Amino acid sequence: MTTFLVTIGVGLSTAAILSLSAVSFTLQYAVSRIANFAHGEFLTIGAYAAYSTQAIFHQNIAAAAVIAAAAGAVAGLVLNTAVIEQFRGRSAITVLIATLGVALIVENVLQMIYGAANVTYSFAQGNLHHVGPFLWTTSDIEVIVSALAVAGLIYLLLQRTRFGKAIRAVSQDRALAQVSGIPARRIVMLTWVLAGAVAGFAGFALADTIGTFGPTLGFSFLLLTITATVAGGLGRPYATLGGALIVGLVIQIAGTYTSSEYELVWAFLLLVVLMLFRPNGVFVRRSSVAVRA
Amino acid sequence: MYWVSVFTEAGIFAILALGLDVIWGWGGDFDLMFYGYLALGSYMTFVLSIGKPTPPVQYIIGWHLPVLLAIPLAIVVVVGLAAVIGAIALRNLRGIYFAVTTLGAVSALYLLVENYTPLFDGYNGVYGLINPGQSALNLTYDGYRIVFGVVVLVVLFLAYLLVQRLSRSPYGRMLRSVREDERAAAAYGRPVFWAKYRAYLFGAALAGLTGGLFAIFVSAFNPSAWTPQELLVIYAAILVGGRGNPRGVILGTFVIYVGLIELTRYLPSPASRPDFGPASRQVLIGLMIILMLRFRPEGFFRERPGLDTERKPARQLPSGAVGALAPAATGNPGVPEGQAADEGSSS
Fold first, then answer.
1. Shortest CB distance from A223 goes to which of B103, B273, B275?
2. Residues in chain B where the model's pLDDT stays below 50
3. Which among B97, B105, B285 has CB closest to A279?
4. Which pTM value belongs to this model?
């Protein structure tokens, strides 16, 4: 029973990072209607940005998180301007292939700069704490708390601000939003900046929890992110949080009772089940409509 | 000998590109699992032909078949896996959902092979298929490599003839009609799923064959030989050559393999950064994919229409007639999947 509760605890920590990454992915989908396969690279860029500057800020974990988010935001801005907007009006799969090309470029440029070998942060992981029935390190707690805070901020942003209202309008119908006087291009751009910042921060949190990472950090997390997003329903930010929770717990529990190397295998099986029975997410009623995007 | 090896490799991957072009070029399905089929074909050829494993090494089967028998059996296994994946992924999933599912499948296969050592000895991989039949043919090592290169090019030519034939057959036309507008094709009574499924199995069979040839070419195979990145090179080759045009695809593969390998050989690679050369090659591939998609999505050799339209040009339909058939439910109306749409809206 103790093992199980510890597993749940670790699962919650995974789910927290996953929810940040998945919310970012789903925001991109909501405004641009594309699946960004270079999304994992935002995480990698955030992680490496924090790695490069950790000595300057004397291993200050808050400064590293801000740097990672800023780097992710810049990456989001560049990707949207240089690639996504250039492909406007093209089929979603064409853009997907292009972002896959971007992922290849970023991964290998990072490899040229930092080498293919893994690097390690020198932040302290902190001690183990018993929180209720769970067993968490200090950085686990930091990750979970900050994920909750970011999720709350995104909720407030989407529901209570003019910017959030504009995002919701653009995600429903970009052309209609445009003729209603919403500067759609700018809203989309800012959403990518926001999504990039969230993903960059998630990358830092992920790298900090794992401890050691390389240029493929983000791409190997992409499949988990997509599974969580699909579980919630593509383009639905709040449902995505639930999806991340499900995926985080399922792979952690399944991984603990088999072997941690097979976590992604379980994620794939979950993805297949979702694709076959609930392609529009677990929180909507079953639809018989074929999924074509 | 260096050039023999370069051209043999390019020839092997040209066969792979032809298979992928059937799935993606004509079927219109962006398959990320495809390199996994090559890998499985390669692994199966090894374990069927190199005999029992010696203790620290472990892998399944361990038969001692001649390669000419091992490769067809490997193809059967590959098509079996493709039948399962295709049945899951092609039934209802299209576009990005199909891509995501196949990405998941290849990731799962990769992790399974890498971590479950009883299968194909995990990260160490399998090896020991060195010039099978060399002594029976009474050849020197170099002579064997030359003969093997010629065999690869002959197989490539046969594959080309087969694909070309398929392209002009009624089935090839049906497949492309399904790609252009699935609902319209279905409305005309075309079996959409079966058309795509057969294309998928055919493509996977070619990948299995390529895997067998690749096994002989490299004589050792482990997970680092089939990272997901490798597949993007094949997609780049198809994009450069011309999606849906077999001749263009073969030419594109040769251009990419011979051209890129030669170009990046002369790039300076500082001793402190041994990864610099290979990484810069991947960056070039990525750039090429993006630029081709953006500025010339049909490639340098356009897909050619089937024979029937060459004989008798079809009457021009008013543009509204096509628009009325196109469904507007995809989120970006008027942009159905396929090249015609890409050309029309690339401005």
1. B103
2. 308-313, 319-347
3. B97
4. 0.87
